[in-house]
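ligand=acetyl coenzyme *A
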Amino acid sequence: SHRPTICYRPIQPSDLEVLERLHADIFPIRYEEEFFQSVVHARDIVSWAAVDRSRPNGHSDELIGFVTARIVLAKETEIGDLLIYDPLKPDQTLVYILTLGVVETYRNLGIARSLIRQVIKYASSIPTCHAVYLHVISYNIPAIHLYKKMSFKCIRRLQGFYLINDQHYDSFLFVYYVNGG
Ligand code: ACO
């Protein structure tokens, strides 16, 4: 097999088909068409794609990994209470990671780590932003290892947070503080 040359770029409209296929392949949850449209048109969503420039036959710009996130108002989230509430700063924000995935044949190369780094760098550049956070299903060991290794703190276990095929599953809430928390 060839040696990959991984590059990172924003997700764009031409990524729509592959983005939808990868989400369907990778996640047990179905996402609405509106979500994918918001991602590729960067409507309220920020995203990064990983591509392998060394892939032949016109695949050198095709997604092999992605992360999607949304900026939210801290006071409107379940973790707003964890930040020091400052009535003079009602516009405190957080970056919420919606989806993160890497194509199976490209796993364990550090691609997810780089994608999360991009999100942290972006969140740190927003003065009102105090943290990056996300939910992960409790049986997802690779993802839990990844977030722990990147110094995210697991602050909550939410019982029955996910409903998949009539089965309830717990989730962990992970937080990475930026700009002093
Ligand atoms: N077992 C244990 N730890 C793992 C594993 C694994 N299979 N894979 C990654 N890790 C941990 C390790 O600590 C690793 O660091 P190390 O190599 O120094 O030990 C660290 O994660 C970074 O690994 P990466 O190579 O950057 O991770 P990768 O690019 O393989 O992607 C991911 C990890 C995204 C979890 C991938 O396995 C995947 O796409 N899984 C399916 C989708 C998914 O679970 N997404 C996250 C759901 S949560 C959310 O979306 C908010």
